[in-house]
Amino acid sequence: MTHRIWLTALTGFGVLGAASVSIAAEQSLVQRGEYLARAGDCVACHTAPDGKPFAGGLEIESPFGTIVSTNITPDPDVGIGDYTRDEFAAALREGKRADGSNLYPAMPYPSYAKLSDADIDALYAYFMQEVEPVADESPESDVSFPFNQRWGISLWNWLFADAGAFEPSGQSTEQVERGAYLVQGLGHCGSCHTPRGLMFQEKALDDSDDSYLSGETLGGWWAPNLRGGGDGHDGLQAWSTDDIMDYLATGRNHHGAVVGEMTSVVANSTSYLNDEDLRSIAVYLKSLPRQAGSEQEVSSQTSSAQTERLLTAADVGEAPGARLYLDNCNACHFANGRGAPQVFPSLNDNALVNADDPTGLIHVILAGARMPSTPKKPEALAMPDFGWRLSDEEVAQLATFVRGGWGNRGGEVTADQVAEVRKALPDDLESSAPDFPSQSH
Fold it and tell me: Assign residue 259 a region: left if phi > 0, alpha if psi is -120 to 50, beta otherwise?
């Protein structure tokens, strides 16, 4: 009874009440930080295959060598456990380690520079209080001279990493501004979808330049133009807001499905965002002006109706690519090329199919693809690989047919291009391909 009286008295005087509020606020801050870490996709780059979360060790190939991601767990010896809040902020916004040396710009600090102080605080609370410390030291990066001289990155930063904190334009709705903050900042979408310059810098860090989010090929995968126009295809701009939300939340929609690096982004990051933020991103992307530029010079070989009639009649004649399509693709993608919504992606006006660089499409044909398992769509549907059964010439014929059918305007693919992609496949996939004497493997 006495304990209850004292408890009531303490609560009445605000002692325990204030403590409870403080604890709840701290828990809320940590939870907010976890959500933001998802939005920033931190785990994808800072976790090695079969490694512990955030312990680093992932090898990232760049034009200058192999960059190995660092341990960002709160381990005090090999991680960031001794970082102060301001040192943590400097790493995110300026690419500066606690010892003052530069991080390699594989870390998207030019984008993270836009983060608000409140979001920095939440991320710091999460990493220091919730992430499990791991005492695994990452191997050193293997970068060629002179790029292995970290002091030289200061010049790169001075030239290219000039973004400041995000400032609302004041000319858009709150929803559009929120989407812009997420896309330009934590989401660092420009890291893949914006063209790179001679020193591998993003040519634009925000939508004040129409090259921003206008598409780029990285690591053999085409990150498509998100603005529409310029390449003769509307792409994402032809999608509805709900289409974009579905794509980010599940990795699939009525138009297509993710492949390549975007698979990891959806699996680890965007599928965990709430509907409000997903809609803000979608509305912002839809608000971007179309990219200026001329239409793609390659014209469509056949209309959608012509291609469907050809495949339905199975009268392929002198079109070996059509025969290969009927034998290998028709069962899932059908004669109309539209597949099954959110199951088998449509090939009509597909960004991967129509990309200037056909490497991504070739990779999918050779090695297959798997959709991510997400909270809203747990089924990890897969496309089988065909590299083991098709020669380089056959893959080239098939890809050329797909890139020219149903009104697509992707252009021709050569056997040499296929051979180059095949060489780059992981050993376990490459070894499963048959030995075609006339082809280069």
Answer: beta
pLDDT tens readout for residues 115-162: 999 999 999 999 999 999 999 998 888 877 766 778 778 888 888 887
DSSP state string for 201-254: -BS-SSTTSTTTTS-EEETTEEE--SS--SSS--GGGGS-HHHHHHHHHHSB-S
pTM, rounded to two decimals: 0.86
The sign one gets for the Cα dihedral 286, 291, 294, 298 is negative
Report the C-alpha gap between 236 and 352 in whole angstroms: 12
Tokens representing 94?
Answer: 């300026």
- Provide φ and ψ at 429, rounded to 5°: -85, -40
What own/partner pairs with CB < 8 Å and gap ≥ 24 does 19-24 have? none
**Residue 241 CB neighbour total at 10 angstroms:** 14
Question: CA-CA distance, 326 to 328, in Å (whole number)?
Answer: 6
Place of tokens 């060489």: 423
Question: Positive or negative CA dihedral for 343, 347, 348, 349?
Answer: positive
- The beta strands (E) that lie in 17-162 are given as 59-62, 65-68, 142-143
- Rounded to whole angstroms, the Cα distance separating 398 from 362 reads 9
Surface-to-core class of residue 12, CB atoms within 10 Å of its CB (0-12 exposed, 13-18 middle, 19+ buried): exposed
Contact 188, 40 (CB under 8 A): yes
Residue 145: count of CB within 10 angstroms of its CB: 8
Cis upstream peptide for 375 (omega within 30°): no
* Residue 43 C-alpha from the chain's centroid: 13
Task: Please provide the distance, in angstroms rounded to a whole number, between the alpha carbons at the two ends of the chain.
Answer: 82
Give residue-wise pLDDT tens across range 268-326: 999 999 999 999 999 999 999 877 653 444 455 578 888 989 898 887 777 889 999 99
Name beta bridge partners: 56. Answer: 47
Beta bridge partners of 225: none
- Residues near 387 by Cβ (< 8 Å), separated by ≥ 6? 365, 366, 367, 395, 422, 425, 429, 430, 432, 433
What are the φ and ψ backbone dihedral angles of 395, each rounded to 5 degrees? -65, -40
